[in-house]
Structure formats: structure tokens, C-alpha cells
Amino acid sequence: MKKGLIFLVFMTGLLLVGCSGESDISEFPSKPIKLMVVFPPGGGTDNQARIISEYAQKYLDEELVIVNKPGGGGRVGWNEFTQVNPDGYALAAYNLPHIISQPLVGSTSYQTKDFEPIVNWGGDPTVFAVKKGSNIQNLEDLIKRSKQNPDSITIGHSGKYVGQHLAILQLENAVGIQLKDVAFGGSSEANASLLGGHIDVISGNLSGITRLGDQVRPLAIATEKRHEYAPDIPTFKELGYSNVIMSTDRGIAARKGTPDEVIAKLEKAFMELLQDKQFQAEMRKAGAGTLIMDRKETIKEIEERKEEYEKLLKTIGVLD
């Protein structure tokens, strides 16, 4: 009788715990959600994430709080993200190719598989630019000077093996030049260094270069064809360097292990947010191109990109 009573109490406890978990998921979200941005305030990812946060309350019924964890071209924050509780209340803004290329070269404690993609929100092509008044007039001038004096032209970017750095490697490999690349903690730091005259060139994103306005002179954009937001910037391809195609694509991910029901709720809310016409207009105003993909499309894209970047890194001698 006593054993039966103990068993009954034990099973009742398990049932209550199970019901509590189901209730928590059904009520998700019931408190603010944190979105980790692994770059400093003022950069492209941060600015666009903050636009998303302005609309989040309408679709999530809870506040989306931006938390900046910069360092190492994203590695510091993404390494930390692998330790958060996988309950959907701590999300991360991811960047492609960063979360694919950085683990490939072994410079992270996180792996691409640690992320559960929810949605992709934007595509931001790489642009090379110089400070207005620079004696580097165009891309051919940059290449000519680099051939004459290898490793003398300094070019800044947001971190090792991020998209902007890979674009530099693509050009160096295509032309046979050596630029002196300088890695910063994020695009805002790189932009400040360019404007301060501490570096010669910047490899940045279109949205960031757009915000600098007439303080800079773009040299080339790494797209297949000229971009609708910047039709005056020639492409690397039309200038004869068809292999230089690169962009920073951004999205939102949960940590691996987050319940499927929570991910489904987040995907639905964020997809509705990304379709908001007012949101899209604000992103265009910020010079931020949208590249909207749902969870299934994003997972497929990441799988395809991994093969592409492995091939690129082998071609340029970074991987064996």
C-alpha cells in the first residue's frame, strides 16, 4: 500500500512537470526576448536588428531587446551563444558567410550546427570604398598600386573570414596581388578608421557605405549586376573580376535544442514582421536590402553555402 502511494505521488509529480512544460510552450513568449548582436552598435547588423526590434512587439506580443556582444568578427558573441538556455528567449542575429566560414578555419568554439535558423531577413553586398579625396581613384588604380608595392595598401574589414574579408581574398586570388588587410571588431570601427585616415580602403557592406554618404568614394560592388540602391557603383564582374561575388546575409537563429513548437511560433511571427510594408520601407530608407527566407529555405541556403565556401577557402589556400 505504501509503495503504491509513493508510486502514485511520483507519477503525479511527473505529470505536473510535463503539463507545466506544455503550458510554458503554449504561452510562449511570456516575457521579453533577447536578440544577441555580435557586432558593436552602429554597424549594419546592429542598425537593422534595431529596426526589427521596433516592430517586434506587434508580432511577438513581447519586446525584442538588442544585446551587443562584439569581438573577434562575431566569434566572441557566437561562442557565448552556444551556452544560453535553449528556450527561445535568447536568440542571435547570424551573419552569412561568417557562421559558416569561421568554423571551417577552426577559429571558433561554435559550429554552424549550433544554430537553429528561424528566418533570414537581409542581403548586404560587399563594397570596396576609399575616403573622399583619396589618391586611389578607382579599382584598377588600387590593383596597379598593389602590384607595384605588394602589402602596402591597407584595407579594413569587420573580422577574419567574414564576408568582407572573403571578398578581399577573392580579389587577391583573381589578380595575384597582396593587400594588407586589417581586421576590426565591426564595421563601425572600420568605417571610423577609414574616415580618420588610418587605412587606405575599406571592404564594407552596401548599407554601411551608403550611410557614409559623400564622405567616401565607392570603387566596386561584389554583385552579379549593379544594385538598385547604388546603380552608379560598378560591379567587380563588369570590371573584369567575375569571381568577386560576396554579401553579408543576416537572419535570426535560436540555439540548438530549442523546442520545435517555440521555433515554429518565432518563425511565424518574424515572417509576418518581415512582410510588413512599413518595416520594408524603413529598411530601404536605411539602405538595407531584404533577402527574406523562411526556416526551410534558410537551412537549404546554409547547406549550399557551406559547400561553396569550403571550395573557395581551398582555392585560395586557406584550407587543404
Q: Considering DSSP H and I runs of 4 or more, what fraction of the residues is helical?
A: 40-55%
N- to C-terminal distance: 68 Å
Summarize the biggest pleated sheet. 10 strands, mixed
**Oligomeric status:** single chain
The helix/strand order is HEHEHEHEHEHEHEHEEHHEH
The total count of strands amounts to 10
Stretches where pLDDT falls below 50 for ≥5 residues? 19-23
The average pLDDT value, as a whole number, equals 92
Overall 3D form: globular
Class from secondary-structure proportions: alpha/beta
Nearest-angstrom radius of gyration? 22 Å
Estimate the strand proportion. Answer: 15-25%
Q: Quickly count the helices.
A: 11
Notes on the protein architecture:
- The chain is α/β, with parallel strands linked by helices and 320 residues long.
- It has helices at residues 2-26, 44-60, 75-81, 98-104, 139-148, 163-175, 187-195, 206-212, 260-274, 277-285, 295-315; strands at residues 33-37, 64-68, 90-96, 115-131, 154-157, 180-183, 201-205, 216-221, 247-255, 290-293.
- α2 (44-60) crosses α9 (260-274).
- The longest helix is centred in the first third of the chain and has 25 residues, at 2-26.
- The radius of gyration is 22 Å and the shape is globular.
- Mean pLDDT is 92; it is low at 19-23.
